[in-house]
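Researcher: Next entry: Enoyl reductase (ER) domain-containing protein (Hyphomonas chukchiensis).
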Amino acid sequence: MRDVPMPEPGPGEVRVRVKAASVNFPDLLLTQGKYQLKLEPPFTPGMDFSGIIDKLGPGVTGPLREGTDVAGGVRAGAFAEFICVPVEGLQKKPPAMSFAAAASYSAAYLTAYVALVRRANLQPGETLLVHGASGGVGLAAVDVGKLLGATVIATGGSDEKLEKVVAHGADYAINVDQGFRDKVKTLTKGRGADVIYDPVGGDVFDESVRCIAFDGRLLVIGFTSGRIATVSTNMPLIKGFSVVGVRAGEYGRQFPEKGRENVETIWQWAREGKVNPRVHAEVPLEEAMDAFAMLWNRKVVGKVVVTP
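Model: Predicted structure:
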């Protein structure tokens, strides 16, 4: 931790006094130089944040004024007391949502929305298998899957954490330490899961290929296991399933109009109280390394946030 000069908002920007910023797995990868975005150290990590607008930059007009509670996301820089961001990238924080919950929301739920709606076209009544369900993006997928009318099977490596996932809305939970292929087949009466949401990769991806339904969609979200899996192309040919890559932010950059629709939809859900981001813990900014360690050691169910 070190003091840096107070940032000043440029044209079209506002300065936000940060109240909370969540720790995402890409933050860990970014600090290790393993993320697709490479930043030269030293830099300030932190993607999702919430806070209060402190100062308007030149030319800023519209409903977001000084004193407005907001939430937003950046590629880096949120683990700080103040941050300057373009005003169009901010959302007014729903009054019923805490600063910690608002900071835990955008990236995880946008990933779940793009994956399940845009890429998988998940339909009511289908079966959704969510791996790594106790993590931030996994628990968001459980929440969104239930909202979309799917039957949700959650997996993870801890019975204690899976109990919390079921309490959050999952219909079934499977501990992957004992395998999951046969249990998924039993729960789906032999058919397999229609959509599989996989932020884990590795052995979990390999076994997922064995319990996906015909015409299923296997969503590649990430590789928290550390191994990037491969699949022999005869498997999707014979079983008639698709392997679909998901990059929520890039989807919005490639399709700006759809990207705006995606963001507006998830924040409308938040305003209507249809979703429920789970905050595992709030950690003072001075102890941000402890928050990183909690995520790295898989101690978190939902999101951990740092609070300046």
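Model: Note for the record: DSSP finds eleven helices and 13 strands in the chain.
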